[in-house]
Amino acid sequence: MKTQMHTVFIGLLLAGSTLAAFAEERLQGPYVGGDLGMALTDDVKLRQFPGASGNGKVELDPGVRLSLNGGWRFNNWFRAGGEFGIISHIIDGADAAMSQMPLLANVEFQLPNRSRIIPFIGGGPGFSVSVIDIDDDFLHDGDFVDGSATDVVFAWQAYAGVRFRINGSMSVGAVYKYFEAEESSWEVDNSSSDIRFGRTKTHSFSASFSMDF
């Protein structure tokens, strides 16, 4: 009987050690995720527009932000990866739209704890493809312009939020992101003047999903 008890006890110890090792391994690995929500962009300075006199401001209607991300989880409090997506707005008072398509590197710090709620902060630099699309309209009393153009500019973001763990691998949550892109410039054919906007500063509030592997 004592021999059997010793055998069972040793077996339980081995099983516990194996599970602990597996749990430790689960702290490292790849992750993927995404978020979708509302984007609010501050008024953008209009530096230049064909036919427009002086500087003005461009107002952007509330828009939408979609982001997809992925990377590597190093432990239960730090992970790093990349993110891409789109931030899209209609320009107020014109038949025109402006979008940012960021491609960013991220580092993220999480607050490990025993609850299902995990606070986190993060951010990083990258670049953004800035797109303007005008359908035979004008800005700030300028000339009529028709067409679309792109520019690539430096960009960065910072974010913070919370995740709720559904199980050992999936979580949902909410995240606030501050995104900033440098001044954008777009060429206008058959014009002596181009279109030039100041910095873009966007606040987004999104629902998020994340999965660890």
How would you describe this protein?
With 213 residues, the protein is mostly beta strands. It has one domain (2-212): Porin (Beta Barrel). It contains one helix and twelve strands. Strands 1-4-5-6-7-8-9-12 form an eight-stranded antiparallel barrel. The longest helix is centred in the first third of the chain and has 25 residues, at 2-26. The two termini are 43 Å apart.
Key features of this structure:
213 residues; mainly beta; Porin; 1 helix; 12 strands
Largest sheet: 8 strands, antiparallel, barrel
Radius of gyration based on Cα positions: 24 Å
- CATH hierarchy: architecture: Beta Barrel
| Proportion in β-strands | over 45%
How is the topology of this model organized?
Blueprint: H1 2-26, E1 29-41, E2 44-48, E3 56-58, E4 63-73, E5 78-90, E6 96-110, E7 117-137, E8 145-165, E9 170-181, E10 184-186, E11 195-197, E12 200-212
Antiparallel strand pairs: 1-4, 1-12, 2-3, 2-11, 4-5, 5-6, 6-7, 7-8, 8-9, 9-12, 10-11
In brief, what are we looking at here?
This protein is mainly beta and 213 residues long. 12% of the residues lie in helices and 62% in strands.
